[in-house]
Amino acid sequence: MRMKFEIELYEDMMGKPFCLDTYFNCRMNILISQNGVEKEFCTSTFHAAILVGIAKGLIEIYDDEKSKFTVEMYESTLEYTFTYFQKLLTITRYEGYNGETVEIMKCRLDDFVEAFVKEYERYHKAILKQDCHAFENEYYCMMRDQINILKNHVNGVI
Questions:
Q1: Upper half-sphere CA count for residue 132 (Cβ side, 13 Å)
Q2: Percent of residues, the chain, with pLDDT higher than 90
Q3: In angstroms, rounded to a whole number, what is the distance separating the alpha carbons of residues 137 and 134?
Q4: Which of 79, 69, 70, 74 is CA-nearest to residue 100?
Q5: Rounded to whole angstroms, how far apart are CA atoms 93 and 72?
Q6: pLDDT confidence of residue 12
Q7: Local confidence band at 14 (pLDDT 50, 70, 90 cut-offs)
Q8: Could you give the CA distance from residue 91 to residue 81 in angstroms, rounded to a whole number?
Q9: CA–CA separation, 132 vs 155, rounded Å?
Q10: How would you write 41-63 as a 3-class SS string?
């Protein structure tokens, strides 16, 4: 499994200096590749909150604090529920507009987290290349901490 975060910059950002706060508000598409097939997993603006929410929920699963968490997408009526049971992570999407619930995917928790952390870390490093003062941003520091915790879980350190 592979994961990719695609960030859609707003037109008014083009040609201007990189601003982390504005960047974190942009639309993000998360794409997942499984067995050679790439599909859109979710899309949302205010992507920093989405990434932090997903990572927080995964950490709570590893820490046995929760077996289920929900992340709401911004500017849509979509909610994604992550449910962990017997080493499997089931992800369902609820469409608030029409009340439809669809199972998006079922996979091993460790496989999902490994793909998520790899892309989360790549994304995190790319931001630092754009803004050497990124560590002054609360979200950026929170992301760094989450990446380290999740890497430790995946590597069996915790």
A1: 0
A2: 79
A3: 6
A4: 79
A5: 10
A6: 83
A7: confident
A8: 6
A9: 29
A10: EEEECCHHHHHHHHHHHHHHHHC
- The pair of structure tokens assigned to 92 is 């369902």
DSSP states of the chain: -EEEEEEE--GGGTTS---HHHHHHSEEEEEEEETTEEEEEEEESSHHHHHHHHHHHHHHHHTTS-SEEEEEPTTSSEEEEEEEETTEEEEEEEETTTTEEEEEEEEEHHHHHHHHHHHHHHHHHHHHHH-TTGGGSHHHHHHHHHHHHHHHHHTT--
pLDDT band at 10 (very low <50, low <70, confident <90, very high): confident
- Give the pTM: 0.93
Token pair belonging to 45: 């603006």
Task: Check whether 91 has a pLDDT greater than 80.
Answer: yes
Closest CA to 123 of 12, 14, 30, 22: 30
Question: Which tokens is 62 given?
Answer: 């590893």
